[in-house]
Amino acid sequence: MKKCALITGASGGIGSAIALRLAKDGFAIAACYCSDEKGIGELSEKLAEIGADFKIYRADVSDMNKIKEIFADATEYFGGVSVLVNNAGMAQQKLFTDITEAEFDRITAVNFKGVFNCCQCAVPFMVSQKGGKIINISSMWGVCGASCETVYSATKAAVIGLTKALARELAPSNVQVNCVAPGAIETKMNNNLSEEDKKSFAEEIPMGRFGRPEEIAGVVSFLASDDSNYVTAQVITADGGLT
């Protein structure tokens, strides 16, 4: 039986690329999404085209009861989740003084509590199997902070802290926990930027361009493979040299 990789936020640009790459690597795919029906439909078609073993789940990652249901079903259907990729997230660009309490709560619930929820559901199986991989998707802004993205940056920094602490806790059980911190990537999340702003931002990046979702998926592929068995508690920043 194939090992199962569960990816949250699988309908988005990075999440979809990760799901496809891990499917090509030989994993069965549990693809989770929240609301992007078009994106998950396109992913489903692509997974079917390559003959992947996959199942689609709809859930808000901040809802622990729903996440428990998904992990229970994935365990029954796939035999357990051996690789967890916490990719679901939401961004916001707003002056700090204009952020509402409701906005703070929502961003924190998705970007940080969602990671906590999925990790807590994944860990018991991985510990029982004496092996597993947890890969958290943070952001370069979680490393250095971004003006007008205070709460987003803070939640992504929290993901890094959780990664490092959980990695040490699970190391004796042969479970590796790592983090990928993407830079500016060509996804819908950056659609709010004008072409002029994108060009200006790209000029600040040493490599002179935005990254591609497939390049982040390549990093995740390494972390999900046996090649990374001695790599844990690390943050791999893939940002074209910007930070």
Give the topology, please.
Layout lengths: L3 E4 L5 H12 L3 E6 L3 H13 L4 E5 L5 H15 L2 E6 L14 H29 L2 E6 L2 H5 L5 H21 L4 E8 L12 H10 L8 H12 L10 E4 L5
Parallel strand pairs: 1-2, 1-4, 2-3, 4-5, 5-6, 6-7
Helix pairs in contact: 1-2, 1-8, 3-4, 4-6
Task: Name the descriptors.
single chain; 243 residues; alpha/beta; seven-stranded parallel sheet; 16% strand; globular
* Poorly predicted ranges: none
Structural class: alpha/beta
Biggest sheet, spatial arrangement of strands: 3-2-1-4-5-6-7
Beta percentage is 15-25%
Shape: globular
Number of helices: 8
Mean pLDDT: 96
Short description:
This protein is of the alpha/beta class. Helices cover 48% and strands 16% of the residues. It has a 7-stranded parallel beta sheet with strand order 3-2-1-4-5-6-7, with helices on both faces.
